Amino acid sequence: MIAMTTHTTTATPRAPLPLPERAARLTTAAGALATTLSTALAWTWSSDFPGDLTYYFSPAGLQLVTLAGGLLALLLAASGLGLRGLRWLTPGGRNAAVLLAALATFAATWFTLGAIAVQLGGLVNLEPGGAVAGLAALLTLLGALGLPPDRTDGPPPAGPWQRFTATLAATPVRRRTRELPSWAEILIIAAAFAAGLIVFTYGIDTDDGAPFVGYLLFMVLAVPALHRAGLIARLTQLTHTHRGIALTAAFLAAALFPFTQDTDQYTIIGANILIFATVALGLNVVVGLAGLLDLGYVAFLGVGAYAAALVSGSPESALGLHFPFWAALLTGAAASLVFGVLIGAPTLRLRGDYLAIVTLGFGEIFRIAMLNLNGTTGPDITNGAMGIPNIPNLEIFGFNFGEPHHILGIPVATYGNYYLLMILVTAFVVLVFRRAAASRIGRAWIAIREDETAAVAMGINSFRLRLLAFALGASLAGLAGTVHAHVVTTATPEQFQFAGPQPPNSAFLLAAVILGGMGTLSGPLVGAALLFLIPAKLDFLQDYQLLLFGIALVLLMRFRPEGLIPDRRKQLEFHETGQLDVPDQRLPDTDATLGATQAKA
Amino acid sequence: MTTPTMPTAGAAVLEARGVTMRFGGLTAVRDVDLTVGPGEIVGLIGPNGAGKTTFFNCLTGLYVPTEGSVSYQGTRLSRKPHLVTQAGVARTFQNIRLFANMTVLENVLVGRHTRTKEGLWSALLRGPGFKKAERTSEQRAMELLEFTGLAHKRDHLARNLPYGEQRKLEIARALASDPGLLLLDEPTAGMNPQETRATQDLVLAIRDQGTAVLVIEHDMRFIFNLCDRVAVLVQGQKLTEGTAEVVQADERVVAAYLGTPVGEEAGSGDRAAEAKTGDAGTAGATADAEGPADTADAADTEDATDAADRTAESETADTETAGTGETTEETPDTAQTGDTP
Questions:
Q1: Which of A381, A373, A481 minimizes the C-alpha distance to A425?
Q2: Are residues A441 and B123, on separate chains, in Cβ contact within 8 Å?
Q3: What value of ipTM does the predicted structure carry?
Q4: Are B227 and B284 in the same domain?
């Protein structure tokens, strides 16, 4: 029976389209090349479409996305053809990656053509170049659909759809055949982060509406293509071996962002993303490490912001104090710390759901209290719903954040300044998170999250450590809150809600942590960046924005419950893989050393 | 029903006096006294639901006993479980409670928690003290992993270990707090004979390192091979306590595990056994000589004949005691003896 099935397996086509494998590969490569070249043509005659795709030999706007997709598909397909020097591009699956890249290119290209036709009113608005691009992308996709799955084991896929999903399936990344010198590895890390910066900058600079949707569509398919190719796994490996360097490179790349901007239009988004990400990382201490579900976390950001606003020297501030920035920063963090302990001390004896409800209540109490401290329903401290406006710009050592400055000869305006300040704050929070997590305290937090009874039986003072996590998380949020107050220049109660269409709010913060990956360092940062950028860019969807957001979250949790950047533990928890979790290099290493010692003996 | 505890040489490591635990109207543990001497391995047996684990929880502070006191090396133990561990009493759990998503090494490092002091500031500033403490902790943890034979699995997730190794890891984790007394709650449950034997050797090795052990187990061979003294808990009360022989010889222990024969059944049992009365009688007499006869229970006269009836066969059965319930039934009914003097 088994022999028969294997026999029929080889006979039936395994690829979604019945093409000879070699022909399929060549078609894909040719299509990808043609797609790449087609971006040199004009796609439309009218400059009305955002990005102005009317020039020859000058790809612009969404053409750049197609160009990137075409190049990616071309490189991966060439690697699939076994071209010398390109094999390293596909340490994972060859065909799944090509198919995804082809899909990404196809989606981005046809979306662009469709958007041109719809926005400008009809297909007549397309130049022949557009048609060429569309056909080339289609050819690439058809070729890629003729590729068989990377995995040859398992039952033969029945229908075309099964064959399609089988081709998309992931394959384990093969081991590195030779070690690179460490300078080369560092160079690769630097290049990867530079590429990341370019991609991110392109995304943030895209116009709202169709161009951003095209970009998003492309990214949603292209990133899995890199993942399937095994490149992301390789990069993760490299960043693990050079952790310090990778972190530095990441921060350098992030710090370069304001220098790529001419105006403040998008740096404000960058600054807000950093604030949001920093708070999310603080929440990750509470939720991800200690396992305390905090639904009112944004209140601590609010405490920090209000504290900073009160001592900022704003004319509307009830206190009328004007602290220097460092003191304001400490005030914000300390105020949040105090509130964290005040809320935590009585409530952290509760477990799970009860704590969630209490924190939810605290979040609302904070907002309503700020509303009521307006002079009529309470003492006049916060100016009620009007908030504390006119928070002046920061000034550190005579460096006024409100004025544009030339840094290294490049002008950086107000929000660029704040962005750079936030980079420092984020770096600090990252440092705190990393060091706290990899210590006796961090282990105790994880132990409490895993099994509180057992943790207590190991001598861990569960209440104290949970309070510590709560307080640390709160003060990190307070720290971010002080900068937040200066960036938005007003502290109002409505900024700090449980849920709302715009981040930061408690629901979005929690979503950022879970979406990114609980307990990880980069997870909440990535999650926060996406959760801030996407709603900000998809503003034109208006009422449907939250609906789509919700659907996206449901889908993500269905297909990737461990988050975008999973903790190794979580990944294993959700996808049972038996013993596959054994750290890749270690076992053979220890075996080898064991063998060596035995040989010596 | 309570019996005076065995006098032990030197100061007791653990001394529980009159421990009573009530949950509402239910008394799970009633007035139990127990002493564990230094370097002793004490077994705690009893049928399911006898209150053994509840008693353990009372000792380790997971439950606050309604009455009674527990002291460790002469000082009264705190009601807070983490302080109990800090004082030097470590435990394992009946249903394995490892930190499933932490690695083997991390699990043991968590066990080191009470013996290290590095707080958050130290972790954030990463001074030389922090690094030194981390190194020492890791060294000690690796020693324990070597000791339990898990060193080669240090980077596996605890959840992926086979069952027997998970049990071992629980012991290693408990040992990481450098306890003076280790409480093991059914350390061999679900293990095959080889694994049980390995655990037995492990417990002996732990004792040899100077840690006293109190162990709950249903595997009678394991208990009687290992323990210097065995206490029997039945329906929340301590029935008897003594050396393996003494406990095995106590027919009330048999009754507790098997139930007391009543009415018709008991009568027919007696009659069927009558053929052997002669042999059994003598065997019973020799057994009696080992310890003074029990004077406490009126029911004993009835039980005495019953136990004596079966003595002849169980002489042989005794030698092949094993962990299953079936053999357990036969084990203790060698002869009838009284409580410990």
A1: A481
A2: yes
A3: 0.80
A4: no
